[in-house]
């Protein structure tokens, strides 16, 4: 039982634009054919890569960046930083610059061209240590997302296809790789390794905690797919459209606010990671790097939706190779807890 609440908290931190934006919108377009792609990306490949990163942290007892520096030196750490940014920058552009901005537009009426830089500016400020009260408020509100999704799943009839399973014969491999990069790349390996390192005294159970969080995230994402299919809504942000259909306009706005708070809890650590790795690659001060990273993320929002997913798909392969080779070196060299 000690794993339940930490796993739930980790799953909430992991929920981002892929879970609540990319996947539901893909389900609205492709229907049931997306289900097997999601299962593979989250419950198989994503859980495996996350478990591998967590094993590195539990075995070494230190952060992943420290492990990389010990094994491969400063050049290896810069390479790891570049691979991380290759996923984290487009992922931040989608989560913070597109999906979060869409929610702000729907809630406030601001045009998307104004909502995008506004969201990224707030995320950068909170990542730099400003507005801590707003971040605390968002953290508490994000805890409502899981029960809200469960309630939406029940009321929308999303469980009905489970009685007569929808066909899951088509696998969209480019999307699967992009989702793998989105949900298990970028800041996620470092987060998994750091969590396992902090809980290293519990041995293998620390690894199972991070895997359980990833599996819970995957189950919630599959539930979002069934919600959108049952509601028969279209994107963008088809999940909030489904919530408005089930809960009514007012309930839909509340759900959108909770989802926006969840994106805040994801984007703030993402901007911190972006800043740290940009500082590692360029040598500039961390706080200045956070501002620079926010500007780079803003520039990335001008890329097409498909281009960002393609970048993440390629970088997912690089991340998998790097994490796999790092795990092999840790096992071979016997890097122990310090």
From TrEMBL:
Q: Respond yes or no to whether keyword Transmembrane is given for this record.
A: yes
Domain of life of the native organism: Bacteria
User: Does the keyword field hold Transmembrane helix?
Assistant: yes
- Transmembrane domains' residue ranges: 30-58, 79-104, 110-131, 143-163, 175-199, 211-234, 254-272, 284-305
What keywords are assigned to this protein? Membrane, Transmembrane, Transmembrane helix
According to UniProt, the name of this protein is: Uncharacterized protein
């Amino acid at each position: 039982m000690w794993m339940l609440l930490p796993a739930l908290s980790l799953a909430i931190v992991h929920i981002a634009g892929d879970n609540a934006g990319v996947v539901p919108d893909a389900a609205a377009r492709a229907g049931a054919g997306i289900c097997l792609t999601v299962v593979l990306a989250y419950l198989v490949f994503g859980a495996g890569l996350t478990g591998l990163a967590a094993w590195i942290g539990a075995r070494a007892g230190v952060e992943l960046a420290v492990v990389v520096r010990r094994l491969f030196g400063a050049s290896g750490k810069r390479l790891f930083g570049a691979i991380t940014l290759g996923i984290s920058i487009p992922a931040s552009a989608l989560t913070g610059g597109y999906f979060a901005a869409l929610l702000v537009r729907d809630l406030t009426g601001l045009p998307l061209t104004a909502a995008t830089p506004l969201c990224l500016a707030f995320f950068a400020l909170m990542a730099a240590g400003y507005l801590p009260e707003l971040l605390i408020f968002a953290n508490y509100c994000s805890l409502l997302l899981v029960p809200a999704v469960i309630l939406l799943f029940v009321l929308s009839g999303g469980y009905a296809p489970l009685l007569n399973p929808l066909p899951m014969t088509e696998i969209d491999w480019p999307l699967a790789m992009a989702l793998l990069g989105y949900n298990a790349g970028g800041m996620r390996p470092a987060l998994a390794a750091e969590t396992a390192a902090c809980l290293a005294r519990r041995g293998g159970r620390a690894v199972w905690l991070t895997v359980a969080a990833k599996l819970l995230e995957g189950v919630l994402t599959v539930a979002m797919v069934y919600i959108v299919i049952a509601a028969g809504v279209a994107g963008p942000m088809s999940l909030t459209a489904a919530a408005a259909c089930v809960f009514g306009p007012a309930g839909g706005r509340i759900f959108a606010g909770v989802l926006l708070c969840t994106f805040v809890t994801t984007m703030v650590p993402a901007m911190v990671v972006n800043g740290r790795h940009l500082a590692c690659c360029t040598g500039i001060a961390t706080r200045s790097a956070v501002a620079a990273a926010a500007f780079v993320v803003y520039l990335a929002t001008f890329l097409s939706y498909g281009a960002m997913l393609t970048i993440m798909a390629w970088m997912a392969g690089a991340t998998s190779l790097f994490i796999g080779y790092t795990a092999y070196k840790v096992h071979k060299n016997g890097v122990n807890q310090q």
